Amino acid sequence: MTPLQFSSGDLIADRRAEYAEGLLAAGEAEAAADLYAQALEIAPGWVAGWHRLGEIRADHGLPGAAAAFEQALALDPADTMGAALRRDLLRAHPAADTMPAAFVEALFDQYAAGFDHALVDTLDYRAPQLLRAGLTGRFARALDLGCGTGLMGAELRGICDWLEGWDISAEMLREAEAKGLYDRLEKADLGALDLPAPDWDLITAADVFIYLGALERIVGWVALALAPGGVFAFTTEAHDGEGAMILRESRRYAHSEGYLRDLLAQAGFGAVQITRAVLRRDRGEDVAGFVVLSRRNPDRMEAEERAVITA
Q: How far is it, in rounded angstroms, from Cα 202 to Cα 194?
């Protein structure tokens, strides 16, 4: 993301940022960072400028990257540009376990128009097909969490009587609506859902949890939202190291198989099937992930359990 996408509002500061980008392209990262710092002396409230200064310093091993990201975050607490994620990548142990909702929304609003081409044609995205291959039978009511432009919906439409899609990005929903796949679409932040009724026979989330991080709350919500015996199908990027999850340089979370199995068991899911597969390609390399299929146990939770799992 270049700073010229978001003007500082000051012509002189913008000019210095332009020169800084030229210096960076010529391999003069330290001089570029110095020029950005000068631009920010003129426009100290420029969030995108502070974020870009942090990027340059972080990407080229220059001091002060975390401070620049901290300043961007202080000016924009909603964190539309994801400064907290970039700051956390500089730490040995990231402090955040989820992505800022404003950052995810802005990211997908920006990419909505070219999303299908980028994922399917360029990155060989296959998560929806992998999930569909594991589903059998027909579902009366299905919910596609993080539906995006409808790539998962295209796989589900033929096996669902009612198909609903929720996403945080209005522009992604606009693209999905144009395809005519869903019976209903709704703008929703998956990190802040209301307590549900057990209405759904199938809930899917294709490559959604890589933007959520900690999954306790959403898995608990799904457990409550599924009808007895309902199916929960989702993908995550695979983390094979220590710990439940990791924030990668791509600014996406990856989860361990053990974490997923424990979490699903605690939330009342049985018949859990986790398969390792290539979800897509990124920067010329395969991205390994988990394709997860699980079924909500027939017994429903009591009110006390509902309160605990959504706390």
A: 18
Least confident of 61-65, 122-126, 171-175, 299-303: 299-303
Among 19, 291, 270, smallest CA distance to 132 is for 291
For each of the domains in the chain, give its residue range(s) and CATH number, in order of start.
3-96 (1.25.40.10), 111-309 (3.40.50.150)
The region, left, alpha or beta by phi > 0 then psi within -120 to 50, assigned to residue 213 is left
Q: Locate tokens 């002396």: which residue?
A: 41
Residue 246 C-beta-side C-alpha neighbours within 13 Å = 13
**Pair of tokens at residue 262:** 């424990």
| Model confidence at 2: pLDDT above 50 | no
Q: Which residue has the higher pLDDT, 116 or 30?
A: 30
Dist. CA 65–CA 117, nearest whole Å: 33
Tokens of 36: 């950005």
